[in-house]
Amino acid sequence: MIFGVLGNPRKKDIPGVLQELKRSAGEIEIYYSEELKDLVPGGTGDQVLPLEEVVRRADVLFSLGGDGTFLKAARFSRGKPIVGINLGGLGFLNFFSPDQIPEVVNRLKRGEFYIEKRDALLALRSEKDEKFFALNDVSITITGSSRMIEIVVEADGELMSRYRADGIIVSTPTGSTAYNLAAGGPVVHPDVDAIIVTPICAHILSIRPVLLPSSTVVNITVRVKGEEKLMISADGQQQSMLVSGEKVSVRVDKGAVSMVKFEDTPGFFEILRKKLCWG
Hints:
Radius of gyration: 20 Å
Low-confidence stretches: none
Number of domains: 2
Distance between the termini: 40 Å
CATH architecture of the largest domain: Sandwich
CATH class of the largest domain: Mainly Beta
CATH superfamily of the largest domain: Probable inorganic polyphosphate/atp-NAD kinase, domain 2
Strand content: 35-45%
Shape: elongated
CATH topology of the largest domain: Tumour Suppressor Smad4
Mean pLDDT: 92
């Protein structure tokens, strides 16, 4: 087994976490992503490589940071299993704490784990051959202006809605507790095969979030007046400016992300109760 490690170097606890991971791994070979080059435990012979190469060589990826770091790991993972060690705030995607690292590594060595597959999203621009990958969500918003944008949404080619709003979010069930939730969208269990379309402050009160089958291809056409600029964002990390009148197609990438879990890993509703203070 080979470990690949990426993390957020700005987290104050990460030097100690890297040391503990190295101690727990023992003879297991570890490759570190370049952002950790100044923090890697010395004298180990382990290599610091570009993230793409770390992923190519690793059997299991460790994500050290908050949910943003996990989203980055997911985008580059190529389906490799990811262990999320939470060094951030809410940590919906990181199931383990730093003090669990020895136990996590020992269970990996013994094969006492299972893989939970999560759907992701793939978005494609009509004006350019540019693709976007998101575990949580793809959003389209206006930048540098308080004006609304005109949005036309189609589901498998059928007109679903036409309205003016501040933007639109297309989310996976995994991402339903992120931007979607903040915009008034529903919480959806990650086992549900669905895609969520949520308007951002629509100018029509009857416009509400819609759950669609995960097989649906969602086409979104956006228009602005004047020189305002539109931006597409995937998980808040992969971003690009859009042209007014451009169409964006979004579909589900089934089981694209693999998350490492154990039989006693907290369930979805236990995490919700803890993170969202549901009692």
